[in-house]
């Protein structure tokens, strides 16, 4: 219950509603969108957006012609997402989806795995995603890099603060992010790039492919103008696409997207 309360308190502040529209969040959004557009079945596909927040991705999915159902545990997020044309939004838990077997052609978990520190819960959420996805459909899950907190606190100058350094050093070892103030995010789990493939496999999702979303560009793109003009932004996206599946660079990316076809 403590875990749920800490995460709920963070999201009830409403910061997630507009996070993907500006700064680093915009780069995460653009790269998630372009990778998914390459991998999703042609529209109209039935897409389940699990932990879809306020509907940032559900909005463009619906605009692309997909049939979108969003599931999220936060009433505030469901309220916002439910107001988007073409999006059906309901309350729910990634570990216990109230959805029939093989009902969707794509199931997305673009947030839930961040907030499940227990591996068993993460595997359960992935199993549920596989269960509700028809054979031949895809399951795609986003994870935060084990090293994102370290680079984030260095870039923001907070690593020199003793308590920030303590929790940051600890999460590099354990993956569990235990913040003491909400400027440092909320309780979360940061994956080593290799362990998500093992979790997919344990859930019955084999031959998983990983995509580094922001690469190292999340450390500078919003400050150096790479997201302010069509030409510069297009060049940045081209560059990131060229190295998105280079394993030696996975750890520097803030987020990975892992995808598997349900068999």
Automatic annotation (TrEMBL):
It comes from the Bacteria. GO terms for biological process: methylation. GO terms for molecular function: methyltransferase activity. SUPFAM superfamilies: S-adenosyl-L-methionine-dependent methyltransferases (SSF53335). Residues 47-137 form the Methyltransferase domain. Keywords: Methyltransferase, Transferase. Pfam families: Methyltransf_25. This is Methyltransferase domain-containing protein. The lineage of its organism: Bacteria, Bacillati, Actinomycetota, Actinomycetes, Micromonosporales.
